[in-house]
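Hi support team,

I'm opening this ticket because the web form for multi-chain structure prediction keeps timing out on my end. I have pasted the exact lines I submitted so you can reproduce it. The total is 466 residues across two entries, so I didn't expect it to be a heavy job. Is there a limit I'm missing, or should I split the entries? Thanks in advance, R.K.
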Amino acid sequence: MFDVIAFDADDTLWHNEPLYRGAQQQVLDILAHYHARDWIERRMYETEVRNLEHYGYGIKGFTLSMIETAIELTEGRISGAEVGRIIELTREMFKAPVELLDGVEETITTLAASHDLMLITKGDLFEQHAKIARSGLADHFSRVEIVPVKIRETYQSITAKHKINPERFLMIGNSIRSDILPVIEIGGRAIHIPYETTWEHEVVPEEELAGREFVRLAHIRELLTLIDQYRSR
Amino acid sequence: MFDVIAFDADDTLWHNEPLYRGAQQQVLDILAHYHARDWIERRMYETEVRNLEHYGYGIKGFTLSMIETAIELTEGRISGAEVGRIIELTREMFKAPVELLDGVEETITTLAASHDLMLITKGDLFEQHAKIARSGLADHFSRVEIVPVKIRETYQSITAKHKINPERFLMIGNSIRSDILPVIEIGGRAIHIPYETTWEHEVVPEEELAGREFVRLAHIRELLTLIDQYRSR
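Hello R.K., no limit was hit. The queue was backed up. Here is the completed structure from your submission:
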């Protein structure tokens, strides 16, 4: 049924978003005596999204966006020492262990025995390489693609490069915007496994999903059964 | 003679290092009232190299390292507004035009008509993609590899992946450490074209070059003649 089964990484195979939200909450603590938390949080999000165009995804861009917001909001009154604490906080993100989601290790190990698996993740090259290495899963994937964005053209170019027929390509991920919709657009199949939280920027309004055909699973443990069903059709 | 000719990008095809050094000089101006320039410059270099392990190469890591150094050196006395100016300066680096080195456009265009060309560059995925797109050269390269570091294993994995015989692989670049030595180690050929300045971290002591066989050209314009000589052997 499928020649290649591809997985997203962050929040599909291992926990990621809580690391960012945890760091952000601590930065909000540092800035709490300047402004209301909600307002700072909103401004941080705006800065982050505006900077995506230049910075792309990842910890470094996130850190720079937080520092930039902090300086703007305080009209430069934030102290060097406070900026130093922000850098210190986000530096810990680099050292954070890679924690696999429940069920991932067994599912990937089992699936790799019968299928050609690929990893497709967007983000910072350096950070993603380090996480893949630390995940212990690298050997199960025959190909790893780290891409700057996940849009229709990304999947078109990956399937073309590896000579994969999109109809025999399955993508699995937690982000409807990045892992599901663009894959359906090129004629591929997609399975959505929502994560406990979704970064606001990745959220797709329900009305945009009308007519889009994809399966949603509550847990990666359900994946093997579903793929078996596809095969026996 | 060669199945694939690969080029480095930064400071081989387009100017890059002066952008970093220019920004650094402006940051030194901002910090000049705290410490002696030479001393700050030395500390910045140390921070940058120490952080490479986490940040990798690129503008974002460079910016964070400069901010970190500034905070350390001033023991946190640097103002938020001054940090903001550092961010502003480095943000301009993202918008800087990609300026090709003299002779690059003609050489690459001519060579692409007769050879399979590849681009191998280390650095930030997002930044390198943007520069390649803006360079106007993308169509001349059949393959582009953006890698976190350029060591022996990098070239081994690239030649294996694309089924290239290392003996029929030629790499051209400005960095002896990243473009020349590891390629020679895997049995490939390399041509060194020094750039006007080399980042200290990329410099290789002359004694390490003993017995390493590679050609050094003063200018990329000399490349076509050299490759013709190889072919007619």
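A quick check on our side: The beta strands of chain B are 4-7, 117-122, 143-147, 169-173, 189-192, 215-216. Let us know if the file doesn't open in your viewer.
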